[in-house]
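Operator note (shift B, R.M.): manual run for Extra-cytoplasmic solute receptor requested after the automated queue skipped it. Running by hand, logging everything below so the morning shift can see what happened. Input copied straight from the record, untouched. If output looks odd, do not overwrite the archive copy; leave it for review.
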Amino acid sequence: MHSMNRRRFLQYASFTSGSTALAGLPAFATEAFPSKPLSLVVPYPAGGASDTSARIFGESISKSVKQQVVVENYGGGTGLIGANKVLAAPADGYTFFHGSINEVFLAPLLNPAARYKPQDFMLVAPISDANIVLMVRNGIPADTLDKFIDYAKQNKAKPLTYATVGIDSIYHLMGDALGARLGLTFLHVPYKGAAPALQGLAGGEVDFAILPYQSSFDAMQQQGRLKLLTSFSKTLPASVKHIPLISQSRIVPDFEYAISGGYFVRQGTPADRVAVLRKAIGEALNKPDVRGKLEAEGRTVVQPVETQQQANKYFDQYQARVTELIRSVGRKTNAA
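Run finished. Output pasted below as returned.
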């Protein structure tokens, strides 16, 4: 045993003497990162707003880190399935999450099936605020939000149905909050993601939908498959100025919401690897073509963050906003 310890010591001594700059650093710090493809987990099916955004980033991040970024879609459970995939993977930086306040904050606070807490994730960098819109199926005789509200009030006996990406998503809570505000009951119909919810609306399965905006909605409106009535944002990028803002409503002008998203890793991921990812995300955010593509999808793009402290500040702001939204609809959190 003594000779084995001595042999280990000699091996370590020869290693450190040959590379004094690395002495004392943990083993992972000496590995090139990344040295293999990365998994970018999207918690919704292909074709939705999250998936579109992730593919725009994935291409740029891949060029920055000189490794393939593989986008993996896990729909269902209002993002729970995707979130669990990230938390079940090693905290080594090779699996990162295209997440939002839905999966990282709302799900663990409201859904008893969520076996994790927001703090199990670390925010690498915020990326954008998505523009949330309300759309109606083509048969509804309303071309403004206020006319739609009037229609809903006239049809109180038969409550209107609305589609979202899933139970306890921000869109679900907004539908509940809007109904409570107007003294109306809306029936929630959860789908496995934005793409199937959109198909449900276009196919007339539901009366309206609350979803993150995508440029494909405009083409569907032109084809007469749905009507875009309002954005819940305060301001919009120039490319989507054609969507009426909630502030134009005379009934609920202050009903403002946006959905913030970013890239997350499992808590405990080595800081140097998080820094590599943050730098690659920052490089993507600084590219005019990436910003242009995101803005065309109705997203307000944030400025890159450079430190973990800056990222943590965003994380805390997201948590505070979500807690306030939950309180505003009279829901209790799992911890309560």
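Quick read of the result: Residues 131-258 form a domain with the D-Maltodextrin-Binding Protein; domain 2 fold (CATH 3.40.190.10). Residues 3-25 have pLDDT under 50 and may be disordered.
Leaving this for review. - R.M.
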